[in-house]
Write a structure and sequence with these properties.
The chain has 349 residues and is of the alpha/beta class. The protein has two domains: 93 residues, 3-Layer(aba) Sandwich (Udp-n-acetylmuramoylalanyl-d-glutamate--2,6- Diaminopimelate Ligase, Chain: A, domain 1); 217 residues, Hexapeptide repeat proteins (UDP N-Acetylglucosamine Acyltransferase, domain 1). The protein contains five helices and 40 strands. The strands form six sheets. It has a twelve-stranded mixed sheet with strand order 8-11-14-17-20-25-28-31-34-37-39-40, covered by helices on one side. A ten-stranded parallel sheet has the order 9-12-15-18-21-26-29-32-35-38, with no helix packed on it. 38% of the residues are buried.
Amino acid sequence: MAHSPGGPAVHVRIGELAALLGGDLVGDAALEVVRIGGLEDADAQSISFLAHPRYAEQLKTTRAGCVIVGPALRDAAAARGAAIVCADPYLAFARLTQWWAARVRRAPAAGVHPSAVVEPGARIDATASIGPLAYVASAARIGAAAVVGAQCHVGGCAEVGVATVLKPRVVLAEGCRIGQRGIVHSGAVIGADGFGFAPTEGRWEKIEQLGGVAIGDDVEVGANTCIDRGALADTVIEDGVKLDNLVQIAHNVHIGAHSAFAGCVGVAGSARIGRHCTVGGGSSILGHLEIVDHVHITAGTLISRSIRKPGQYSGSFPFDDNASWEKNAATLRQLHALRERIRALERKS
């Protein structure tokens, strides 16, 4: 099988892809492509996509056999060759990658690998896959078509939902559960103890974390991300949440459905974050705060107080609504020049 930028080859006619994506085909339906490629490195056997008008100039130079574009770029794409015109080309690209992955990635075989350890009392669906050296504790439940990858740990009374995939070396600790169609990437730890200690006589007394972690359906958890168990009640991640790599979710945090956090975000204990929120990479949210639905936090922002109005927020000195923060940041960059002007005026007076 040939390899190139865009991954292994899959021989398919663009007419089939247009029907799959619900797009309008421009060109010969019998034209065959074998890989997905970026505009710059695609060749005549590649299908590529253009989602943002700023890259429209690349249509003139790309060698892609077919390009997925939006309606505004239909004529420009047609002038260079075959195209599939979709209302949302980025969404079409996403669905194309899913279709492609289903054909080039080998599905794990159902059953329990001989080297895995499954304790008595664990309930594993016959269609699930338990990989090499994995461990499944007593009273754990593994749903239909679920995958527990090599060297994973699934603790006692933990639950893995239907068609959820735990990549190699994931820990799903005791009493924690994840719903259907989830993906948890390697190194993630779900259900470590929350950071709870009582100070006494110059030392710290551990507060046992007695809650769990409850994760909904269609959630993706990035590599080496940690989601701590609750102190008493559960830490909750609702349906459709997407967490990037190296995200820290502390005990008793509640994240609303379809929110998305970029890499290295940290959320302190008992923060409550609404639905359809986004948090840029490297941002921090302090504990016991409330953030309403549809809040968008830009990268590197420190959230030190609750946000009760939807919108975009930025900054760390302190954060503010985005428009005000940008004005203040612009003023800050001119602070030295403003100081010198004031000094000059003072000298004249």
